[in-house]
Sequence to fold (434 residues):
Amino acid sequence: MPSTQLKNGDTSWFVHDRFGLFIHWGLYALPARHEWVKHHERIPDERYDLYFRHFDPDLYDPAEWAAAAAGAGMKYFVVTTKHHEGFCLWDSKHTDYKATRTPCGRDLLKPMVEAFRERGLRTGFYHSLIDWHHHQYIIDPHIGPLRDHPDRERLNQGRSQAKYAEYLHAQVRELLSDFGTVDILWFDFSYPKPDGSGKGRDDWQSEELLRLVRRLQPDILLDDRLDLPVDMPGAWDIKTPEQAQPREGITVDGKPVVWEACQTFSGSWGYFRDETTWRGVDELIRTLIDCVSKGGNLLLNVGPTGRGEFDARALDRLRGIGAWMKRHGRAIYGCTQAPSEFPTPQDCRLTYNPDSNRIYVHMFAWPYKHLHLDGAFSDRVEYAQFLNDASEVRMGMDSWHANQLATDPRKTLTLTLPLVPPDVPIPVVELFLK
Ligand code: GLC
Fold:
């Protein structure tokens, strides 16, 4: 089938749901010092095997994970079926490097998919293109524990990247055949170099892989890391900025595209015991709002422990976000960037639901008495209320203040606010448009 016939996946649910859970779980949960630990510390296979031989997540209960994600207001999840270390969470026919062969002795993926589905979350698979364990994978000078090994050339003798690509394709076929509907496939990642020393579309045989994916699951959403041309039809559905907030909605050739920022609580994706740079609940909520205000999604990561749990810090953040989402989800789901005639007021973000025709003003800082909304707001708002308790926010201001501030009510809608903000991390005013 020529590539021009490939169709994109159906993003309609994705741009509605806005908030998902990323899960990075593998052997690296045991060293607990970054999922790249094998690369960072140049750990040889023999030593890394220690983690394989001790992997025993005896407290793993995916129903608890799914409950935590659903409680936070997340609507989909994306889990590392295999990360760069090469270890597989499911009982793949094509390798022994999998959970069933560790002391854990069971498939970890199937029950996870079932538990999240039961909570109504959609399923996404992250799958690493990179593999630091497979015996056919060519060791390159950039990435992997053996990247600067003096005998790299010799170690590569007898390896065939094409054979590795066969393995990659066979596993993708398995993942997209044996787990029912998979809503997202998240390949990671390519790093082509001008001199051919990196890895990209030829190393993964990306075009063929793409055709396989589109054939097996025609509605699936695909990320953008296969190193295919950005303008190739059907090559990707989602742009995936990582560990940073885009300054504005993402465009390709000047046109807005579907995007999802993926971020961590603290820097590492895998469980990292000693990392102390954890982000707070308020800032995480602001990040989610910021994504939606720019027409994007947020995929927020948890790295479960080697016992198989979300640790207390992660649960604390998820609960905090969930408490806010319970009352403010309506300003997130189904929402997007506000139309340009509604400029963003100072210290705020706007989200907009085109179906209900409401604008949400997320107040990142609490102003003294008044919030001034310029532009089209002045004659388009029928009613205003706080979203947390549906209490009215009075429109307009008294003449004494209006005279002092010299605002023109024909050009500016002023909201009169209480001195004390609602007791929520981010107050939101819901504006019902006429
Ligand atoms: C990266 C990293 C990785 C993480 C991923 C998530 O590319 O290699 O460890 O899984 O980003 O976006």
